[in-house]
Structures are given as C-alpha cells and as structure tokens.
Design brief:
The complex is a heterodimer. Chain A is built from twelve helices and no strands. Chain A is an all-alpha fold. Chain A has two domains: 163 residues, no CATH class; 53 residues, no CATH class. Chain A is globular, with a radius of gyration of 20 Å. Chain B folds into three domains: 30 residues; 34 residues, no CATH class; 37 residues, no CATH class. Helix content of chain B is 75%, strand content 0%. In chain B, helix 4 packs antiparallel against helix 5. Classes of the chains: A mainly alpha, B mainly alpha. At the A-B interface, helix 2, helix 3, helix 4, helix 5 and helix 6 of A face helix 1, helix 2, helix 3, helix 4 and helix 5 of B.
Chain lengths: 240, 106
C-alpha cells in the first residue's frame, strides 16, 4: 500500500484499505481462535458459551484466562478482576484514538469501541496518525475491526466443532503460551520491561499454591510494580 | 459455578471489557490520564502475559515440572524463532513441531 493516497478517500476506499491491511495478521489470529474454541470446551464451557465468550468479550488473552480460571474453579470476583485488568490496555488505545473519533455519532462510537482490539488498533492507528486525515477514516477502523471479528468468530466456531473429538495428546493448548511469546518478545525492549517480566515470573513460582488462582493477579501486580520502580530508579539515576 | 452464574459472569466480564473500550470514546475520561497510570499500563501486557506463559510452560499440571518437561525446550526454541523471524506463525509452528518431535523421541 505505498501508492500515493488521494486527498480524500471515500468511505468504501478506507474500508477496503483497512480490510486489506488487516488480512495478513489473521495468520496469527486464526490459530489462536481455533485453540480458544478447543480450550473453551476442554475447560467445561458449553459450545454456545464458548462462542458467546468470543462474541461478547472479543479479546483473545482475556478469553483464554477466563477459560483457564473457570476450569480451575475460581471465584467470580477473581475472574472478573483478572479479565478486566488484562483489558485495561484498551483505555490507552481508546484515548489515543479519541481525537480522531470523538465527533462521530454515538452508534458509530459504540460500534467502533466494540471492535477495538490489539490488532485492529495497531493497523488503524498507523493510518490515522501517518496519512492525511479524511472525513471517512473511521471506515478504516471498521474494516480492520470487522475483518478481525470475522476471523475470530469463525475460528472459534471451528475450534468448538473440532474440539469435541480431538485427542489430548496433541497438546494444542501449548499454542497459547507460544502466541503470547510472539506477542511479548518484541515489546520487551527496555531494561524496565525485562524486570517487569522477571518480577512476574518469580511471583508465579512463589504464589502458585495460593487459593483462588491468586497467582495471576499477584504476578501481574508485581510485574507492573517492578517495571515502574525500575523506570523510576533509572530516571533518578539519569537526573542525579 | 452453575450455568446461570456462568452466564452472569460472561455478561459482567463483557460489560467491563466493553467499558474499557468505550469510556475513552465516550468523552467521559480526561484527555490525558495521570502519568503514573499511563506508565503503569505500559507494563500490563508484559506483566499479565508473562505469568500465563510461565504457568503453562513450567506448571502444565498445576505443579512445578522442571525435568522431563518437553514444553521448556520447545518454548525456548519458539523464543529463538520469534527473535530471529518476528512472525507469530513461525513461533507457533516451531514451538508445536518441536514439542511433538521431542514428546515422540523421548
């Protein structure tokens, strides 16, 4: 897509550009959705609950955590706070997009909010911030968001269908840590991010025996705290 | 957890998740969050996803398994593949293939 962009693209052109730019990412999204479908069934959710989780939550990492915590009988409040904490990053996405979208009618903002995911954000924010603005650029986010939505729902449904008669020996659940390795490796660039990962890791080994699957929340909090403290210490070192 | 409760949990999680997406677009949040919150949120993906990786690699049966656990070398190979290629699909293929190969061989 390195052709020159005409001054004002139509809604249709924006939408198609969004769809085409989002498509390559589906190579990573589809296997993840597939595995979520399989895992949902394994964790004791019904097929319809697994599919609805993809429709209602529409966030890969948080759905995986939901399924894992349900399988390990975790209290309501712990699951709700784990899922919400994982999804707090959407606040940042929304804030960085708000200046482009805040004038849209309410139904557009509700629709685009629902479709706002990591992969759609990553592609559309590039278009919003790097190319000349157009009246219809929200159609770009609609294109990226709907593309991801389609692939995510379809792969979840396929996963649910094949998950019901798949041998355990394939260890397909292993796709989940693999996907997460692929997500976090490129974002660990600074020392403070490495320290955050280290603190979170150590906390898992220290707390995995606690009740209610508390290890996840405690590890996340210690990772955040570790990263922040490392960042502050470095700032102080630079200032002094 | 019975079925009603589970549906309630799915809907509540869905509502909270939607709010994380919608509040900034609703104009209900200040344009800039306090710097400490923004800094903290920068670490959320690493702080949340790392423990999930560690748990599913090192505690596949909810107990620490350091020996005879083929997930550890498979995850390391996948990590190398990620650093070299930076492609999600390569990470998944390398990781799964090495797990299957090692479980078959050893």
């Amino acid at each position: 897509m390195n052709t020159r962009i005409p001054r004002s693209r139509t809604g249709k052109q924006e939408f198609i550009a969004g769809v085409l730019e989002e498509l390559p990412l589906q190579l990573g999204v589809a296997p993840f959705g597939l595995v979520f479908g399989i895992l949902g069934i394994e964790s004791g959710l019904s097929p319809i609950q697994t599919i609805c989780l993809s429709l209602i939550l529409f966030g890969g990492a948080s759905q995986i955590v939901f399924a894992q915590l349900i399988a390990a009988t975790t209290p309501f409040g712990i699951i709700l706070s784990s899922v919400t904490m994982i999804n707090l990053r959407h606040l940042l996405y929304g804030l960085s997009m708000a200046s482009y979208l805040h004038k849209l009618p309410l139904y557009w903002r509700v629709l685009l909010a629902y479709l706002l995911t990591d992969e759609a954000y990553a592609v559309s924010i590039r278009r919003f911030s790097q190319q000349p603005p157009s009246r219809y650029m929200h159609f770009h986010l609609l294109g990226t968001g709907l593309t991801l939505h389609l692939f995510w729902q379809a792969s979840t449904i396929i996963g649910v269908l094949i998950g019901q008669n798949l041998p355990d020996m394939l260890s397909l659940g292993f796709v989940i840590p693999l996907t997460f390795i692929a997500i976090i490796t490129p974002i660990i660039k600074r020392q403070s991010e490495l320290i955050a990962a280290g603190c979170a890791t150590a906390t898992v080994f220290l707390t995995y025996e606690l009740p209610w699957n508390l290890w996840l929340i405690l590890a996340a909090l210690s990772g955040i705290a570790g990263g922040l403290i490392a960042e502050k210490l470095k700032e102080k070192g630079r200032a002094g | 957890m019975d079925s009603m409760m589970l549906w309630g949990l799915i809907l509540t999680c869905g509502l909270f998740t939607f709010l994380t997406r919608f509040l900034p677009l609703a104009g209900l949040l200040p344009e800039k969050l306090p710097p400490i919150i923004e800094q903290a949120m920068h670490y959320v993906p690493v702080a949340v996803l790392t423990p999930i990786i560690i748990y599913s690699v090192f505690l596949p049966t909810e107990e620490v398994a350091l020996f005879n656990n083929m997930r550890i070398p498979a995850a390391l190979l996948a990590l190398v593949a990620t650093v070299v290629t930076g492609r999600v699909i390569v990470t998944i293929v390398v990781g799964m293939a090495s797990l299957w190969a090692m479980e078959y061989l050893f």
